[in-house]
Records
---
Amino acid sequence: MLMQYLNSGVVEAGCDEAGRGCLAGPVYAAAVILPPNYKNDLLNDSKQLSEHQRDALRPIIERDALAWCVGVVSPEEIDHINILKASFLAMHRAIKGLKIEPQHLLIDGNRFTPYPGIPHTCIVKGDGKMMSIAAASILAKTHRDEYMCAIDKEFPQYGWSRNKGYPTKDHRAAIEQYGATVYHRKTFRLLDPQLPFE
């Protein structure tokens, strides 16, 4: 059962990211403020839900939330500052875009770069513990998946509509055959380290 609040009576925003371990595409993050006493029995960590369930929940969360926003950091920015900092930057952009300023941030994971003026609590596996983080995980994942399916039309050979940019065997084989695109993260190990060198 997901908890609604860490601190009752405080406006909390849950934050989570999607796409940190991908070889291609931006990293996305979402920040969500849910109404007091919000109930949705389907809400769960996005990784525990099917694609169909996530897609069904997204418009419900966007409709019901008091505020929500998605932040994006491009592959170029990821290569420039590293993926961990990029994940935090995406969260900062999502928080900054909220139409209501939260009083406290609930961050999925064990580390975070403090957001100016708002205290935070890091919660390991928070997307399976806190309702607002679970909602953020669903928005970050569905918005990112939608983007990866869109750029798949430009470069269908990499299978992004299926693998969403993650390092699958087929994705790495396509990189070896066709090379990297503008959407690939150049500082990541794009080729399978198990592949024999010519």
---
Amino acid sequence: MIYLNGFSCKSALGLDDGQAVKSLTTDTDICLKETYGFLPHGEKAFLAELPVDPAPLPNHDCRANRLLNLCLDDMAPLIGEIKSRFSPDRIGVVIGTSTSAITDVENEVLGAPGNTPVNQPPVFEEEDVYELKYDPRVYEIGNISAFVREKLGLTGPCYSIATACSSGGRAFVSASAMLNAGICDAVIVGACDTLSRITVSGFHALGALDTGHCRPMSAERKGINIGEGAGITIATREPLDGCYVMKLLGFGSSTDGYHISAPHPEGKGAVAAIEKALAMAGLSSEDIGYVNLHATGTKLNDDMEHRVISQVFGSQVPVSGVKHLTGHTLGAAGVVEAYVAYLILRYGLSLPAMTYLNPENSGEFADINIVKKQGVPLEKPYIMSNNFAFGGNNISLIFGKGND
């Protein structure tokens, strides 16, 4: 059994449990809005940039690590407990990300002498020579986990995971593997992604970015919004004292490799991941009380996910998504959405609702049970969270109450 002890998360839901609970129960967010400067030619995007300006770090400084550092500070008492209980070489670190420090690299390049404003592409003359002041080691994808290990003085296994939008979910799988193999006694599990012109412009170029407020699982859906997110929890084989504990009951992963950016239209890899998670947890689809959908708001993803939910869960299990509140936090999505499960289980919240949808079941999603109004309770104590990423990287996680 894997226990997840405590949780700190920063996203458009809020910067602490209180703000996040309010956002989930009122179907609102704190910072998803029209934003300029991330697309060329002055175009707007609808993004969630967190309303926090963390202090610079003495080492490994970048916005992603600054946000992670806020989460680590929140978790300081529990981190102190595992450091007093376990040897530093028995505590691991696994952090998911897709952009790491790319935002800071962009700012450095765009701020080069004689360059164009931030809302236009950079222009360099052939004879221009500019030496970046930015430490290139911080740009490496592994730096985001190295920062955590160095800050905490740990010497156990440490690495980053970058499998696009399943990165955060896969961090839980990797942490579980290290614990079950006896390599570690505790693992710091987390993920972080910050807003980047590369990712915002990239999704825009793919035709997958909604420049208004996204509407996943809706006939009017036009694409994703992107948001920042960071989160940290501690995985162990035995629960820690003095915190709320959530169980990771099962997980499933698959890599169908159907297409570099489009999901398998029938969701074969997604179904495989879900079925593996159910089998590991010893549960049937009817046992699940709620499924947190990947629900990005793109035509292809929502079509695929609809097929998968209809096939595996039918019309009985309540399902919804939260990306209309958080934006798509990309590599951090698995952790941000695990945090949603944590909040539901810890505080007895009603299920997240997609209140912009017609309360009446109609249209292409009529055969699945989308939560469209507030106040729907969790009737069975098992929550599934799904993330389906580029390249067919699919993750399904099942969580349950831990403080029984």
